[in-house]
């Protein structure tokens, strides 16, 4: 059995198409198909359900795939540990991030790359469910996600910050001069929010409901960038996480107003699988996270906007 055969199998399971998997592995489709057939012969089990096109893996194939992920992860960990012993960490840190935490990711990735110039970072915006799957299948080294996610199993958690929610509203709007705003009053504004599939939106809806209100936004977006793109025209207001200010700031012509209610939302943090031995890259990122002061940096940024120091 060759590691290359396992790489081909992982690519096929990911792409669900022989030609795309071959392209991802930079080989011809016949070469990839032949390698997987050799793997089946060597293991003595059928791995791929074949028809006129790829139809998935057999039950035996699913077992082989799980071991393939594990074996390839161990190989990568070996290379990372040896590179660290040689005096410089190398390899690619695979970091999954829930979309609403992406604006704060550079608070970790920038110092990580500065400390380990030989390493690279691959960021992927993923749902909470995809992050759970990616960690379990050794497809991710670490993730930034909500720490109260019930789906997370067998991981180590490191808190980074608590989401704090504020109102972004036009400077000439009815609530722009308020020192604080009730959630129920914010619900009456023309709103632009994330769509209900996003965890952040569901949390915000719970906050509105706790104040006896229901938000009915005129515009919904599936990304933070898409939401922000609607705001500069001066018509819409939005409820945002304070972490988004790190990347997007406050659009011209708008003001940040604190919302009355819970001081903090759910915790966002770094999670890594409980591997043995642990991923060298994940451990290096955890060390950076312990020193980065993400919570303090975001709280200071929010205070500067609330104090009128930035516009």
Features:
311 residues, alpha/beta, 4-stranded mixed sheet, 43% helix
H and E string: HHHEEHEHEHEEEEHEHEHEHEEHH
Overall 3D shape: elongated
Distance between the termini: 60 Å
Q: What topology, given as strand order, has the largest sheet? A: 4-3-5-13-6
How many whole angstroms does the radius of gyration measure? Answer: 23 Å
**Average residue-wise pLDDT:** 89
Structural class designation:
alpha/beta
Number of strands: 13
Helical residue percent band: 40-55%
Structure description:
This protein has 311 residues and is of the alpha/beta class. The protein has 12 helices and 13 strands. The protein has helices at residues 3-15, 18-24, 29-43, 59-85, 106-115, 128-136, 183-186, 199-210, 224-229, 245-248, 280-292, 294-306; strands at residues 48-50, 54-57, 91-97, 119-125, 142-146, 155-162, 165-170, 181-182, 192-194, 219-221, 238-241, 254-260, 267-273. It has a 5-stranded mixed sheet, with helices on both faces. A 4-stranded mixed sheet has the order 8-12-7-11. Strand 9, helix 8 and strand 10 form a beta-alpha-beta unit. The chain is elongated and about 70 Å long. The model has no long low-confidence stretch (mean pLDDT 89).
